[in-house]
Amino acid sequence: MSTRALRRLRGKQRGQEALDLGDLGESTEEQAEAETEEEPQDSANVSTSSNVNNNSRKAKKNKVQKNTSNIFELICDADEVEKIPPDDEAEKPGRTEKSDKAKSDNKEIERLAQNQEGVSAKSGDRKKKKKKKKTKVTSEDGQRVEPDNIDLLLENLQQSNGLSLQSDESGGCNKKSVILVEHRNLNPETELKRYFGARAVLGDQRPRQRNRHFHRSTWMTSPKDSWPRFSRPGVSMTLLESKNGNQCFTFEHSRDYQQVQFKFLDAVESMDPNNIVALLQLNPYHIDSLLQLSDVCRIQEDQEMARDLIERALYSFECAFHPLFSLTSGTSRLDYLRPENRAFYLALYKHMMFLEKRGCPRTALEYCKLILSLDPDSDPLCMLLLVDFLMLRSREYTPLLQLYQDWEEHRNLSQLPNFAFSCALCRFHLSQQEDLDPEEAENQKKQADQMLQIALIMFPGVLMPLLDLCTVQADVAVTSHCFFGPMSQIGQPPALAELTALYVGRTYALWKEAAVMLWLEESVKEVLRRVDVKDSFVEECENKRKQRYQSAPRNIHRHVLLSEIKEATSTLPLEVTTQPVMGFDPLPPLDSVISYTRPERQHVGASNESTLSLFFRSLLPNFNLQGGLRQEDEMEVARAGQELNQEVNRLMVAMRDMLANIRFQEPPREDDPYRDDEEWD
Length: 681
Known about the structure:
It comes from Iconisemion striatum. Pfam families: Tcf25 (PF04910). This protein has 32 helices and five strands. The chain has about 675 residues and is mainly alpha-helical. It has a three-stranded mixed sheet.
């Protein structure tokens, strides 16, 4: 490759190369050495040719001065230039010999050459120091940080800016160990490469150079060429406020996007997925349509299409991020009370569940921490009921115990069944590691035994459902005991029954190991012994269960609905199961912050319409037999609706009477002597 092409690749133009001070210094150094070598060594010869030497000395002097007249070499600090001693500058009055003059001239030339060497050497040293400063950065603690370690540089930057990850409720405890997210862990290929290797994951795939679509680089999803061409759908993000080191953001919808949202609500009310598909053909990156259609595809067991729609929704969100919004800082907040922000929570949650089913628990854990970091105080999707399971799946034992210690004081994690049992199981797995010392392993085992016994005493209703799902037959002494028997499940408060069923239905597979079952059996026997001797701790836990867990908050009900665990959904209260649940916004908060409202739909007149047309219009809101929209009086509409209800009630009563009067003839018995053999032929 030519030098001109290399110069273009480096971004340099001709004649703009930086001057190298070291090269100037080397040139003056060589010239000074050449001049000193040409000096006569015999003083007698110098005395005989004084005139010639004087002329040559003047020429050499001018030559040296010409070399030192470079402005880049003269720009230096005062302490860098070596001062000439005063003894050498002062001329002695007794010297009249020409040889002494020649020697003094030679010394002066040597001094100038040494000055040139010092200037060039020190300029080179200063250049090296600047290069060293570029290669290494020192942190506040005085430790040197390599520039490749981006995470450590960001950590030092956050500490210098005074950004704290502590909330008012935390009481000074650090949440950073939980909500800190790493960009590289958001990519599932990173985890798959760790399991199977890069060649097995990527294969021989090579990007096609022709007809290649250039997409914006994102962290959460990788855009695919099969997706429709991206155009901003009308979703943007704004910064609301900054307080206590946190930045509060919100998504906003444009006027055009609001109109598309109204059409989407009409399509949902029509109960026809084809209407949503038609809407997506016109608006391929409408968020709620992508979420709703993903649920439809998942129900139809089209998992690949359902996951692709969720990834498209996440890509649309990430393209709308504010420049200050960060996924990894842990200080960016999104309020779940705003409907525009809920779709982002739900897209992250559904993407996380797809990753967990795909076999990427570490990547799913990273998304779980991301959701938790968006609103750690309210936790609208109740991710604390899931984070322990993902940490156990990804074998993050130490972070799980650290989370339990940091959040126990202000969140009372020990009162949740999932943390009570998961932390005990985490201690047991740590005690089984081979690289531990025998004393440390024994200490971990004792702590695991103690934590499991406390969990069984506090939540006795977990044991029998857990053994049933693990297909393990319990001992008669356990099933017949009043503490672990059927009464332990019947007498549970409703909220505790919901939490227990959720934990058992989600994590029973982690308890199927033979070593874990033996350890559980030992702890159950010890608990029964403590119950029989009437330990005071058993009575204390019973009183806590009676006083607490009377009603679960709304975010726990929302989490149970999203989990779709049948053991947990069967325990939901009636006020949740009787109301309609939309997949794009399950159980919205009662105190939602509404930024724009849907316009009221025009009522269709019913005075001249038949009952059949009213029935069809109740099923299909857009149905109109007359072909046009008319404004009628409210009294007429109410009367028509009342007549329709009466007709439907009469129809239901008639159908009920008809079903009640149906009698099926029983087949004849074999021992009936009056049986007719030809009757059933």
